[in-house]
Every structure is written in C-alpha cells, then in structure tokens.
Amino acid sequence: MKKEVITVLGSTGTIGSTLVQLLSQAHVSVRAVMRNYNRIQEDLLGVHWVKADVADRVLLDGVLAGTTQLFILTGNRPGFGETQIRIIEKAKEAGVKHIVKLSALGATPRTKSGLAKEHYNAEQALERSGISYTILRPHVFMQNWLGEVAETVRKEKKIYAAVGDGKVPFIDARDIAAVAAEALLHPEKHKGKYYVLTSAQAISYYDLAAAITEVLGEEVVYLPLSMQEMRERMQEQGVNEKMIESYLALAAYQKAGGTTAKTSNDVENVLGRPPISIAEFAEHYKEHFNN
Q1: I need a surface site. Which of 126, 202, 252, 272 has the fewest CB within 10 A?
Q2: In terms of CATH, what superfamily is 142-168+200-261+272-289?
Q3: Structure pTM?
Q4: By three-state DSSP, how is residue 47 classified?
Q5: d(CA 253, CA 260)
Q6: Using an 8 Å Cβ cutoff, are 45 and 24 in contact?
Q7: Model confidence over 267-277: pLDDT tens digits?
Q8: CATH says 5-137 is which class?
C-alpha cells in the first residue's frame, strides 16, 4: 500500500507551525515546505523539511511528488492567487487526492477586497480541478494582538484601535490549525466542505482589555480612536499609506458591526470542543503582555 504523505505549504508561519506539530503527533509522514531554515522545528518526528519557493513551477514538481494530502497557505502578496492556482494545477498532475486550502472570510465574487478576490479565484480553481477539497475561511486572528497591541499594553497598559465598540469573533490560529489537521487526517469526513472559523462569541477591544487585566492583575484600558486619530498615529509610526488605508477600511467595517460580528459553530462541530476563548488566549500568551 502506498504510504500517505501530507505536504504542508507555509509550514513555519503562525498556523503552519502548529499544524505541523499536530500532524507529527498523529504519527503521519509530513513534508513541511518553507523558505527559511531558521524557523524549522527540528525535534518533530515524521517531519521532512523542504526548502522551496512555491512560486517556482519547476520546484513544485519535486515538492508535490508522492503527496496524497496537501495544505495550501501562501503569502498574501499581490498575485498570490495565481500562484495558488498553479499549485492546484500541479497538484492534479501529481495525483494529490485531497487539498485543504486556507482562504479568508469574505472570499466571494462580490468582494471589493483584492485579497479576498484572489482567494475566491483560487477557491474556484480548486472546485473545478476535480480534486477533493476542504476550504477554511477564518475570521481575524487573535494572534494579531501579539504585535502593537501587546507592545502598548507592556509600555502603557493601554490598547488603541479605531473600531469603537465594534465586536468581532476573533479566532485563535491554533484552532485554525486544528481544523486543518482534522481535514487532512480524515479527508473523507470533510470533502467539499467550506468551514467559517470564528470564536464562540464576538469580542470587543473592551473585552480584550478586561481579559488581559484579569491575567496581569493590573488594569489595562482600551482607548478608541477616531479614524483620523488612527491615521495620524500610523503615519507617525511610518506605516505606508496603502497599509493605512487597508487597516482603516477594515476598522470601519468592524466598527459598523452586523455581518462582521456573526459567529459560526464550525470549529466546535469539527473539533468536538468549543473554540479557544479570549480568556484562555490571554492566559496562554500572558508573557507577551507583561513587561
């Protein structure tokens, strides 16, 4: 019998690194593809690390050879959708049996987001390919808080954002990885599924401040900023204008509430447990918020 090989593209990022750990713990053969050897996890059993640029069509043949299940996660630079479509085409040539694609919430033909549109185009290519698939559409990651939010908490015990009292069902990236692992390990159960991945409830930045306050034992406050105040703050930090516009567009959407606050039961349905809560996240990453 042919030995199954699960290939993970994007194996050293926030989601991919956890996914590789979970697959190693499941005692399967994993081909972990990455661009930077400095980020590999050398002590994982059953994991073979491969350095490759997935945008290179020639290298793809070797990367995908013998793969039975494939996880697709690439960077979000403009044009990534075409790269993913080429990966899907090559996967079909290589005889890959099942693909799990990390997509994004809002990947629809009606989206005005360039990033979401590229994800949608890749999703459509995957559907047309005839390969069995599972598509994951996560909401915003809790791990995004480990950057500037964690820094201002450490320095000032304050959180700044331009979303007002808007609520978003942020998802812990570890839950995304866990769902991906289930879909790769048991493809027959998840064939043709689109999973929307959120936390169990929508969360405001006031809720985040309260959760961090609880674990630190020191008061952390959320200071909502106007769009103009946030623009000026980001300009002072040297953020480029394109990124500023992108952030403010997302902030306005989150501030308005409605669709962006909707939750899904898909994480619990797949994993048989509730998603990681904001309180659990704050406890697990306590050292990032503590100076």
Answers
A1: 272
A2: UDP-galactose 4-epimerase, domain 1 (3.90.25.10)
A3: 0.94
A4: strand
A5: 7
A6: yes
A7: 999 999 999 99
A8: alpha beta
